[in-house]
Amino acid sequence: MSSEAVKSMETDSHSLAAALVKRGDALLGEKTAESLAQAVAAYDAALALIKDLPMQESPEHRHVLAIAWMHRKAAFAFRRCAPTRKSHRRG
Asked: What angle, 0 to 180 degrees and rounded to 10, lies between the N-to-C axes of helices 33-50 and 59-79?
């Protein structure tokens, strides 16, 4: 595989990981049990993509990696006190 192809794959993986972090951030902002679980899944997907990229070559890769880990931890912290969607019957 050519170095240009490898670089293109790295760029694609980085871009997708960054988009997944943004998705996780949007879900994190909703602060419901369901959205927080989805946020953790988005951060996990981002981490799976970014972990194999050459960290030493790109501060941007390191930044996305760090943000994904930190925001994933925040999502877990919020999950402990997030309201759940339960139906309440009156009567």
From this structure: 160
Q: Is the pTM of this model over 0.70?
A: yes
Contacting residues for 49 by C-beta, under 8 A, at least 6 apart:
13, 14, 16, 17, 20
- Measured in residues, the chain has a length of 91
Tell me how far apart the alpha carbons of residues 18 and 12 are, in angstroms, rounded to a whole number: 10
CB distance 50 to 13 below 8 Å: yes
Instruction: State pLDDT tens for residues 33-84.
Output: 899 999 999 999 999 999 989 999 889 999 999 999 999 999 989 887 766 6
The residue type found at 37 is A
Helices 33-50, 3-30: axis angle to 10 degrees equals 160
Task: Give the residue ranges of DSSP H helices in the chain.
Answer: 3-30, 33-50, 59-79
